[in-house]
Specification:
The structure holds 2 protein chains of 2 kinds. Chain A is built from 3 helices and no strands. Chain A is mostly helical. Chain B is α+β, with helices and mostly antiparallel strands. In chain B, 28% of the residues lie in helices and 39% in strands. In chain B, helix 1 packs across helix 2. Classes of the chains: A mainly alpha, B alpha+beta.
Chain lengths: 103, 176
């Protein structure tokens, strides 16, 4: 399953996945000081997003373009669009940083 | 509509379980996954990560499945997830994109940190069939049985990745 839906996109997918996974490990563990206030956390996550852009931005662009093209060629974009219309996922709003609720 | 829910705990902290969950494909317990692609991913203003993935999986059709209606043994599912590293929660919902007129199945996973530093996972499944012709109940039960078998396998897959991660982190530490 380390395959992409289109074989020509698989090398890009692998490169993107490695880049993302490395970034993601750091993203999951916010530095203790960053969690101390909503403003600090907001700055921290902005920095994390920028870091992702720097490290993985260009491979993501290429990979995404490859997948979009494959989706169109295979006629899958219609299926995706339809599922979004049929069943727009109403997710609960993102938790505000200061709350710690569990559902 | 049928509903089923199951919860269990991991000894490991939330961040490593979430990492293992994200890395769960490929693993030997998930050989039915043919392809997996990220089609969108954003960091929200609240600092959470929202991801949408398109996954192709091999399915085994039950003997009584109407062959004219379900013509292929592979189908597409959509996975949508949201990770909140501050609140230490991970929500992930997977649903089938095809054959929805026969059966709609949605699996939701919620992984959160517990007060004592462990990690709790709750998995819910909703199966809905409006197919009629006397097949609704069987389709819904079949979907639910598949789900139950899948939850155990999924847990084994994640546990495997967890132990690999633990080992590799130990090695990194001893190499200093």
């Amino acid at each position: 399953m380390a395959q992409s839906l289109a074989s020509e996109c698989t090398p890009l997918k692998k490169e993107y996945d490695s880049c993302f996974n490395a970034w993601f490990e750091g993203y999951l563990e916010p530095a203790v000081s960053a969690s101390s206030s909503p403003e600090k956390y907001s700055k921290y996550s902005q920095r994390k997003a920028e870091e992702f852009q720097q490290k993985c931005g260009s491979v993501w662009k290429e990979y995404k373009a490859c997948v979009q093209k494959a989706l169109k060629e295979k006629g899958l974009d219609a299926m995706l669009q339809q599922s979004r219309e049929e069943n727009p996922l109403s997710r609960p709003p993102p938790l505000p940083p200061s709350s710690n609720s569990s559902s | 509509m049928k509903y089923h829910s199951q919860s269990f705990f991991y000894d490991d902290p939330w961040s490593i379980v979430s990492l293992a969950y994200f890395l769960r494909y490929p693993n030997p317990y998930a050989s039915h996954i043919i392809s997996c692609d990220v089609i969108s991913r954003i960091v929200t203003p609240a600092g959470t990560l929202q991801t949408t993935r398109l996954i192709l999986k091999r399915g085994s059709l039950p003997r009584w499945a109407p062959k004219g209606i379900i013509s292929r043994a592979e189908s597409w599912v959509l996975e949508e997830s949201e990770v909140d590293p501050l609140g230490k929660t991970l929500r992930c919902t997977t649903k089938n994109l095809e054959f929805t007129k026969v059966m709609k199945m949605e699996e939701s996973v919620f992984i959160r940190q517990t007060e004592d530093g462990q990690t709790a996972q709750t998995t819910e499944a909703r199966v809905l069939s409006g197919f009629g012709w006397g097949l609704t109940k069987r389709i819904e039960s079949h979907g639910l049985n598949r789900f139950k078998a899948h939850v155990q396998r999924s847990r084994e897959g994640v546990s495997l990745i967890l132990s690999l991660l633990r080992e590799s982190r130990l090695q990194t530490m001893t190499l200093g």
